[in-house]
Amino acid sequence: MGKEFKEFLIQGDALSLAVGVVIGGAFSAIVNSLVTALITPLIELFISLFVDQGENLDEALNVLNVTINGVIFNFSLVISAIITFIITGFVLFLIVKAANHAKHSIKKKEEEEVAAEPTTEDYLKEIRDLLQAQATKETIKK
């Protein structure tokens, strides 16, 4: 059991998956801070310019909140989560697309290298052509 687990951990797939999870977590932190610190305030500022419901920004942003029975629902957090999801998904799409393109080009080069080597059929065609040429020379000599 321990040996199988060790082989599983050493395999490239498990190791690649672990690295991907760690990098994905770090990337999520970057995207979350970008959305929370930059994009959400810009959206709130944009909304506050068109909705005049208070003297300061906090009062104007109350339009994003819904209060039901004293419970406040803050929709700016939902908007932040949606933006974070879209940005993360788009960047991951670009990474996967680039990786697939690289994998496809490597596979294509390997196929070209394999195609460049002579096959058994090529050797048989050469032998046939040599035999035909030799037979033609013998016919001309007679």
From TrEMBL:
Alphabetical list of InterPro entries matching this protein: MS_channel, MSC/AndL, MscL_channel
Keyword Nucleotidyltransferase among UniProt keywords: no
Quaternary state and interactors: Homopentamer.
Keyword Ion transport: yes
Function: Channel that opens in response to stretch forces in the membrane lipid bilayer. May participate in the regulation of osmotic pressure changes within the cell.
Domain of life: Bacteria
Name of the protein in its database record: Large-conductance mechanosensitive channel
Family: Belongs to the MscL family.
Subcellular location: Cell membrane; Membrane
Pfam families: MscL
Membrane-spanning parts: 21-51, 71-99
Alphabetized UniProt keyword annotations: Cell membrane, Ion channel, Ion transport, Membrane, Transmembrane, Transmembrane helix, Transport
Membrane topology: Multi-pass membrane protein
UniProt xrefs under SUPFAM superfamilies: Gated mechanosensitive channel
Organism: Enterococcus lemanii
Lineage: Bacteria, Bacillati, Bacillota, Bacilli, Lactobacillales
